[in-house]
Amino acid sequence: MTNLKLELKNMIIDTLELEDISADEIIDSEPLFVDGLGLDSIDALEIGLALQKKYGIKLKADAKETHAHFASINALAALVESYKETN
Amino acid sequence: MLSFKLRGWNTYTPGLESAESWKDWLLSQYELSTDAVKPELKNIPAMLRRRFTAIGKCSVEAATPLLNENEKIPLVFASRHGDVDLTLSLLKSIANNEPLSPTSFSLAVHNAISGLFSIARKDRCETTAISATENLIPFAVLEAATQLQESKHVLCIICESVLPDLYKPFASSPPFTYAIAMVLSREEGDTFYLNNTHSKKTTLNTKNEFEELISLLLYQSDCAHFPSTKNIEWSIQR
Q1: Which of A18, A19, A46 sits opposite B102 (nearest CB)?
Q2: Helix%, strand%, coil% for chain B, nearest 5
Q3: A70 is in which domain, residue-wise?
Q4: Which residues of chain B have pLDDT under 50?
Q5: pTM for the whole structure
Q6: Fewer beta carbons below 10 Å: N end or C end of chain A?
Q7: Is B99 in CB contact (< 8 Å) with chain A?
Q8: Of A20, A39, A49, Cβ closest to residue B46
Q9: What is the pLDDT of residue A28?
């Protein structure tokens, strides 16, 4: 697990108060929402806010690409990486 | 005068787990230990459980033992200040120009706890969330007893948390967080009467309203009195 992915998992666990879940239980490629980890739309907004606070990334809640960025830990890590490169 | 029956009641306060401990507390009003048993909500899936704050957890723990597993029952949820810690944390965020937590925002509405409870129980019956500065308990009972016209049973949850220190100079606070749940019924249980009478006194009750109700439910009194500043005195009696 890369440091960034672990960091993102811990961020999700802390901000969403997933008290029963540990970082190694979140699979990098699996969906974060509904079928995978089982997060919901309020969680999506909370993750969006956490990304803004932690990495300065601003996303539009209704944009299609936002949906894709939130698909999995892999997708979130790619988003953060590309943001770091361009800023 | 309005009559109703009480199919069952229960209370949840960390530190007062039994009727005996409540009776002791009513007599001596000792300070509760802060390391008392915390509500666990074992029957609620973890992903939903994390959304319940302390006052919501107490409400669920108080109400759940009264209900049959798949029972569909309307709910009257009553609290004067609701999830006041959550509201205050949001206000502080606004004051500090910080973005608001969407989760906290969604949970800070007054009917959030009753909504979460209905999701957890998969019960689509109506829920009513009420608040009142004084006489919250008789108003909650009035609402629930009135709904017996529509339903055979109505669940009524009354809960309050300790006020944050910032608010304590401005309003009374219970000494601890509590929830009382009652199932009012058309046909099952002991009969109770809700009354209101005009009173020339405008004294505020020195007791907390929940003490009056618990005393009545535990047979420590025959009548719970709820005076007000509005020249009306409410009472509930057997």
Answers
A1: A46
A2: 35, 25, 45
A3: 3-17+32-86
A4: none
A5: 0.91
A6: C
A7: yes
A8: A20
A9: 94
User: What pLDDT is recorded for position B38?
Assistant: 77
CA distance B40 to B113: 16
CB contact under 8 A, B102 and A53: no
The verdict on a CB contact (< 8 Å) between A49 and B106 is no
Q: Is the Cβ pair A16, B99 closer than 8 Å?
A: no
| ipTM metric | 0.82
pLDDT the model gives residue B199: 79
CA B216 to chain CA centroid, Å, is: 16
Residues in chain A where the model's pLDDT stays below 50: none
Q: Residue A33 carries which DSSP code?
A: B
Interface list for B 50-79 with A (CB within 8 A): 50
Give me the domains of chain B, ranges plus CATH numbers: 6-188 (3.40.47.10)
The one-letter amino acid code at B149 reads Q
Instruction: Show residues of chain A in contact with B46, CB under 8 Å.
Output: 18-21
- Cβ atoms of B164 and B88 within 8 Å: the answer is yes
Q: Do B103 and A38 lie within an 8 Å CB cutoff? A: no
Domain count for chain A, please give it.
1
